[in-house]
Amino acid sequence: MATKKSKTPKKTNASSTKPKSATKTAKKTDLEAKKTNLSEKKSTTKKSCWKDFFAPKYEEKESILTIFKTRKFYGSLLGEVLGTMLLALLLLSISLMGIANIATYIFAIIALLIAVYAFSGACLNPLIAVGMMASRRISVIRGVMYVIAEVVGAWIGWLIFNGFHLAGGESAYDIPAMTEIAEGGFWTIALLELLGAAIIAFFFARALAYKRSVFTFAATVAGGICLAVVVGYVISAAFLGANNNFIFNPAVALMMKIFPTAGENFGEILGGICQALSAYALLPMIGGVIGFYLADFTNKIACEE
Known about the structure:
Shape: globular
CATH topology: Glycerol uptake facilitator protein
Structural class: mainly alpha
Radius of gyration: 31 Å
CATH class: Mainly Alpha
Strand content: under 5%
């Protein structure tokens, strides 16, 4: 008789013996772990965006003992002198010809920024230099030397322009003088300077993000200057009753407003100088700092990854 073969029990996989509840629990654990890792990455990214907000943004460690030993620094100073001299000539020409020609001169600003950018970054304005110092884009010693070079450049430009004016005699155009700060109108002019300076500094700070494309950088800065001039002209003409109450450049303002201050006695002259310094130098520099930090703050908020 044939005997029946005994059936051997089949091997079962260990995974098949696991209950379904254990599998679901493991999947939930993996999902929670992934979410935790993702949240940790996001929090780390947000911290990395803000932790360097006040950190230096320049690579070289510059000090008063080392900065004067490099030839490149002297080239930067010369670029600031020449660039501010040409900018002063341009601003004086614009103030002489009027706002109708600003569209023509905007191309001159672009060309000037492109020509000088390779030397010093084309600050060409003390409010920009102070804003870059405050936002730690350049060292303090470099910023102070830039301001001095810009004042010298504006002075040379004023001398050249005024020399041609004197050589022309009575037939030459009269150089427009800055409107006197009337009693009660100080804060209006000061706030106008503050607003225009903040606009220019904001555009300059944003333009630095495109510094690899020099034309894009120059066009952005020139657009900011154009916007500030148009806003200043409209506010000045419509609400202040004058077309020459703003300049948005403390170096040029020294030659046009601060140095020519006159009065009947020493106290009146000193008071006029202090008023002019506050309205045309101090407030624009504060506006420059505000513009740079506004650009940095906006950039950090938008730093998602």
